[in-house]
Amino acid sequence: MIKLFLSVTFATALMGLVAYGQTSSSSSTTVATGSAGTTETTTTTTESLGTVTDFTPGQTIVLKTEAGEPAHYKFSKTVTYQTADGRVIEPSKIRKDSKVRVHYLKSGDDMLVDKVIVTDRD
Question: For residue 91, what is the domain's CATH number?
């Protein structure tokens, strides 16, 4: 009986730690119009947290995430770079090994970043 109780307790604690360590979140919006004027819009916005391993302003950013594999992102036409407290910064302030959160839209196989938030600075 004690073994069962301990197993359940440790399993619950482990699930809580996994949920707490989540590094991304997402939301979706779908709009559909009637059959006469068919319009369908699907937008998925997501945020991901990681460490910058490669950065080319205006083109691409590569992040090392907790999942272990690098995540490759492209930049959308307009990108906002800011600090954690919301101050807008220049892209040159982002360096390799900076911890950042990227806000991106999924477009086919591409992940298009529209906001980069630096979560820690030197």
Answer: 2.40.50.320
Domain count, the chain: 1
- SS3 (DSSP) at 96: coil
Strand partners, 88: 82
In DSSP notation, 68-82 reads SSEEEEEEEEEEEEE
Residue tagged 């590569």 (tokens) = 62
**DSSP label at residue 88:** B
Using one digit for the tens of pLDDT, what is the confidence trace for 48-96? Answer: 999 999 999 989 999 998 888 899 999 999 999 999 999 999 999 999 9
For the whole model, what pTM was predicted?
0.65
